[in-house]
Amino acid sequence: MSRKKTPKSKAGSAPATSALPAANGPRPVRPGTARPGPEAPPNGPPQPGRSSVGGGGDFYDVAFKVMLVGDSGVGKTCLLVRFKDGAFLAGTFISTVGIDFRNKVVDVDGMKVKLQIWDTAGQERFRSVTHAYYRDAHALLLLYDVTNKASFDSIQAWLTEIQEHAQDDVVLMLLGNKVDSAQERAVKREDAEKLAKVSWGGVGGGRAPRAMAPEPPLPGCPRYLQDYGLPFMETSAKTGLNVDLAFTAIAKELKQRHTKAPSEPRFQLHDYIKREGRGASCCRP
């Protein structure tokens, strides 16, 4: 497999604080439309590596689109910067406006996997723009703030949105962020684990998640969600707790789906999280 280079986006050179994707990324979309640019691979067959138009960049074999979603202020941008640059954005800063993205190439079992990570605005007024990007996503990281009960209470609404707009086979993970602020915790870990144990009725089916029930889920429900519910762990963009693990687990799942031979054992996402994580949960029912 020949390796190409990935263009460096302008968005990757500075903290994501505002506006829309850089000029070499996808153009802004009108509400209700999707117009992915050359850097946004559609859900389904992922993109192989492509040549860089410039001289720089990292080699990669395959690319996947990952979205960070959740209420405004839950730490999506900080989580992305921690993973991309190994840094923490201290202090207060302007919330993301619209859509922004960063690229990072990770090594997954000898394959260079490019994650194009989209940082979305959590405010209601930008929700229609965010909807247009769901349909092209290969994976979604859904965040809440453990110090903000309202952001946790919004998770059900976000899950319903994901069901309505995302692909049936999207990889989904629930993250409780800001666990470094233990003194201010407002959401118990046990409550999040209980929420993660859902019987998933098919992400694209337009139905809200149901409490765990004996009847089988609807056709099209991803197998790992049928068996275990949502993968869940608590993270800290400030300390780096479980941040790399979350993205690495997503990359491994996506890569395995792309390359798995019929005789090859399936990658066990929940088992990997349980084995590698610090305070992570496989959320078995």
TrEMBL record:
GO terms under biological process: adenylate cyclase-inhibiting G protein-coupled receptor signaling pathway; exocrine system development; Golgi to plasma membrane protein transport; regulated exocytosis; regulation protein catabolic process at presynapse
Alphabetical keyword list: GTP-binding, Hydrolase, Lipoprotein, Magnesium, Metal-binding, Nucleotide-binding, Prenylation, Protein transport, Transport
Keyword check for Thylakoid: no
Gene Ontology MF annotations: G protein activity; GMP binding; GTP binding; metal ion binding
Cofactors: Mg(2+)
E.C. designation(s): 3.6.5.2
Catalytic activity: GTP + H2O = GDP + phosphate + H(+)
Protein name (record): small monomeric GTPase
Organism annotation: Bos indicus x Bos taurus (Hybrid cattle)
Taxonomic placement: Eukaryota, Metazoa, Chordata, Craniata, Vertebrata
